[in-house]
Amino acid sequence: MAFPKGFLWGGATAANQFEGAWNTDGKGPSVPDHIRGGTVSSPRLWDKEIDPNVYYPSHEAVDFYHHYAEDIALYGEMGFKCFRLSVNWSRIFPTGMEEEPNQAGLDFYHRVFAECRKYGIEPLVTISHYELPWGLSEKYNGWTDRAVIDCYVRYATTLFKEYKDEVKYWLTFNEINAGANSFGRILSLGMTGEDGKPMFGMKETPEQASDRFTALHNQFVASAKAVKIGHEINPEFKIGLMIAGMMSYPYSPNPLDVKKTQDKMNMGNWFCGDVQVRGHYPYYAKRFFRDNQITVRTEPGDEEILKEGTVDFYSFSYYMSSCESTDPSLAAASGNILTGLSNPYLKASDWGWQIDPEGLRIYLNEVYGRYEIPLMVVENGLGANDVRAEDGKFHDTYRIDYLRDHIKAMEQAIEDGVELMGYTMWGCTDLVSASTGEMKKRYGFVYVDKDNDGNGDLHRERKDSFYWFKKVCETNGADLD
Ligand code: BGP
Q1: I want to staple 368 with a disulfide (CB 3.0 to 4.6 A). Which of 3, 184, 299, 418 is the partner?
Q2: Per-residue pLDDT at 310
Q3: Which residues pair with 426 in a beta bridge?
Q4: What residue ranges define each of the domains in the chain, with the CATH number in brackets?
Q5: Candidates 435, 436, 442, 452: which one to mutate for ligand 1, based on the most atoms within 8 Å of Cβ?
Q6: 0.70 cut: is pTM over it?
């Protein structure tokens, strides 16, 4: 059997897209709490001041805060071995700058972890998943200021100590390479200082790009410090990085297309992993910074910190692939952050993301060949507009097909020799989309009654994929039919 014993099957979520209760029990606002809903054709906008007359999807999300027992019971029923969730930073430190944590926030996650334990589910905790406290964004223009490093380290240390015996697996930052691309400015780096309103699509000056790479550098330093402290607090901790897995192919065998693809993979995909696994900046970054007139502001001692805080495992999200070409006339593929050209050999989802299971096998091999450390797929899934059938149920066979093909690709990668720890499907319970803010873009095994405008009673229902994944978990991936 391909999947090793103890393989971590499960699902993944993020607090700002899932929990709601945005100002309950002492929680402060976070960056996503300031971002409005949108669609692919009308991108999300954000407000400096929260407008009471505007609908913000994160404020209620799907209210995991009050449904956690029911949701985790459903994960138990499916036989999850692992549940990936993020801690909402501003639930613990409401502005990010307090000296002491908010006890009510800490208590919530104790309740969540206790519920997981009931069903033998191992939590995998993302310390920061696109949810910087608004206070830090406002005061420091997000991660551009080094002061945020200390705030993060205080927050991470609090979590490590508090949940020392409840959590073993940690991720320091979600999709840290979002910050290596300009689309990561708001969500990933909290840079609301000088920007205009749209969440994506800003054209940067070299100074603005320098600020962004400085902000990213500060995240590297924060992550490395956290890894070191975490291991001191509990040497059993496994602390990983998390990358938005971007598989790019050359559109043609033209060597110029191949070179363009290599450049995109280097700075868009590999850069952050190279720093966090190897403990230093890769050689190619120098030329990229030079060509783009980017200056990263660092401090003496940073190099040492990066060296001492390398991660234990490499985790990533994988949804799609795209192509690169030097021919400007080719059409761009749609994707939230993974923009590139469409591939004539692939079909796309309703949201234009190109479905490519073989790309997952290739990616797993590439990453393992590069680093030879354990890997984990911590996001993968199909965002679709699920429609209730005449019999009143959700027959999401398209989702089952998508997941089956990707699980088969992982199986092949394991046969190839890749060391894979687990697989957490994204959005196991329907939740708010990160890129568009829609509810309509559903990923779940579990349906939640709520629409894009916030209507619905939030009740949960099992889709067909729920019963299918239950079988996958129970047979450790042997039965995929
Ligand atoms: C990743 C994020 C998640 C999640 C997922 C799906 O980039 O880590 O937070 O949302 O993408 O994307 P979307 O919600 O835009 O469909």
Answers
A1: 418
A2: 98
A3: 12
A4: 8-474 (3.20.20.80)
A5: 435
A6: yes
